[in-house]
């Protein structure tokens, strides 16, 4: 008989890595796993149901909300509320933090930031989408938890990960001791350990960037794209260009095969597009834990100050050697500008 380890079994085993933990973090991860299975069910039958398409509303960032954006948001919040281990949820889909004021939750130790559905413009065309989550310990000692409990640097994350709803559904997470990936076995409804101790190759042969915006990119990024396209056998160039438009899916491929993902700043969007709290920081934590690198082109993502819930940041993330090469070109460009 084939041996397998479920996410639940794995989480309980790993609890021993945290001698003072009383199981709250384990229960929180379990709750996220449960909500993701419900979202997975809906994503999988999206074409059959009246849940495709635009809900006709916009979120705080003025982006059109898809029906599944709202559904996924509700499912994760409900699971975290009933689980009782989380005192605040911060979500891409909500302007403000969502305090959970029930008797059990208001003294809970953890804060969760979430992008409930990443890549949602891909839902209607059956392209992989994802969920991104980040977990912090609350800082305030008493009274209701507050925004400051969410606005912590990425280095303070106690756990982070993502779910990819792809050709199979996977949950990948870290608690700061490496990265492990679990594949959902739909026949038993369990995530099973399929990718233990994931390591991103130090270099790859794929670059992922929305090249349609080329004209707006900083010189350093333009230079790096040209570098990717030059022939050089020793670095496997020219690299392949692969851009799905779901960051989770692009990063998941690059985590397994090696590669770099860039979403840079432009003159009209000086902080890029992606959000620091629930997109960049959790994915940077995962990629660093897998041996990769993540920066805004100049500074480490995880060290950036966080002052706003929906703050944006440029991001250069993936295989270490590739991100380093791109950073070098960003620095050269800065020097040119300041000369
Ligand atoms: P979300 O669906 O959560 O708003 O995120 C979409 C993000 C990210 O997943 C993707 O890489 C990027 O937006 C795509 O943006 P462009 O269409 O500008 O390339
Ligand atoms: Mn997103
Ligand atoms: Mn989203």
Q: What's the CATH class of the largest domain, please?
A: Alpha Beta
So, CATH architecture of the largest domain? 2-Layer Sandwich
Q: At the fourth CATH level, what is the homologous superfamily of the largest domain? A: Fructose-1,6-Bisphosphatase, subunit A, domain 1
Share in helix: 25-40%
Report on the structure:
- By secondary structure, this protein is of the alpha+beta class.
- It has 2 domains: 7-195, Fructose-1,6-Bisphosphatase, subunit A, domain 1 (Fructose-1,6-Bisphosphatase, Chain A, domain 1, 2-Layer Sandwich), CATH 3.30.540; 206-338, D-Maltodextrin-Binding Protein, domain 2 (3-Layer(aba) Sandwich), CATH 3.40.190.80.
- Helix content is 30%, strand content 22%.
- The protein contains 7 helices and 15 strands.
- It has helices at residues 7-14, 24-44, 67-83, 219-229, 247-257, 276-289, 320-338, and strands at 54-58, 64-66, 86-91, 98-99, 110-118, 129-137, 159-165, 169-174, 179-185, 190-195, 206-208, 240-241, 260-263, 293-295, 315-318.
- The strands form 3 sheets. Strands 4-3-5-6-7-8-9-10 form an 8-stranded mixed sheet, sandwiched between helices.
- Strand 1 and strand 2 (64-66) form a beta hairpin.
- The longest helix is centred in the first third of the chain and has 21 residues, at 24-44.
- The radius of gyration is 20 Å and the shape is globular.
- The relative contact order is 0.13.
- The structure holds 2,5-anhydro-1,6-di-O-phosphono-D-glucitol and manganese (II) ion (2 copies).
- Residues 115, 118, 247, 279 line the site of one manganese (II) ion (MN).
- One manganese (II) ion is lined by residues 69, 92, 115, 117-118, 120.
């Amino acid at each position: 008989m084939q041996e397998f380890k479920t996410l639940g079994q794995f989480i309980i085993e790993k609890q021993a890595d945290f001698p003072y933990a009383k199981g709250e973090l384990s229960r929180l991860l379990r709750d996220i796993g449960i909500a993701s299975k419900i979202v997975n069910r809906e994503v999988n039958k999206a074409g059959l149901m009246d849940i495709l398409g635009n809900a006709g509303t916009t979120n705080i960032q003025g982006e059109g909300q898809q029906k599944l954006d709202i559904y996924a948001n509700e499912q994760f919040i409900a699971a975290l509320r009933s689980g009782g281990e989380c005192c605040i949820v911060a979500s891409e889909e909500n302007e403000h933090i969502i305090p959970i004021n029930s008797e059990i939750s208001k003294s809970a130790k953890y804060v969760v930031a979430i992008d409930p559905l990443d890549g949602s413009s891909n839902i209607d065309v059956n392209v992989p989408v994802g969920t991104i989550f980040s977990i912090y310990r609350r800082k305030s000692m008493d009274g209701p938890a507050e925004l400051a409990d969410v606005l912590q640097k990425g280095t303070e994350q106690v756990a982070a990960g993502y779910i990819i709803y792809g050709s199979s559904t996977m949950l990948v997470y870290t608690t700061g001791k490496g990265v492990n990936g679990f594949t959902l076995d739909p026949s038993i409804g369990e995530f099973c350990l399929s990718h233990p101790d994931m390591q991103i190759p130090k270099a790859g042969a794929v670059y992922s960037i929305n090249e349609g915006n080329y004209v707006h990119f900083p010189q350093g990024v333009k230079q790096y794209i040209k570098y990717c396209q030059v022939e050089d056998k020793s670095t496997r160039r020219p690299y392949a260009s692969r851009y799905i438009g779901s960051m989770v899916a692009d990063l998941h491929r690059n985590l397994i095969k090696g590669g770099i993902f860039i979403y840079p700043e432009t003159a009209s969007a000086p902080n890029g597009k992606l959000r620091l709290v629930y997109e960049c920081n959790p994915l940077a934590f995962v990629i660093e834990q897998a041996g990769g690198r993540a920066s805004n082109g100049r500074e480490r993502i995880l060290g950036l100050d966080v002052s706003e819930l929906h703050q944006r940041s440029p991001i250069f993330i993936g295989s270490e050697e590739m991100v380093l090469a791109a950073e070098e070109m960003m620095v050269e460009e800065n020097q040119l500008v300041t000369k």
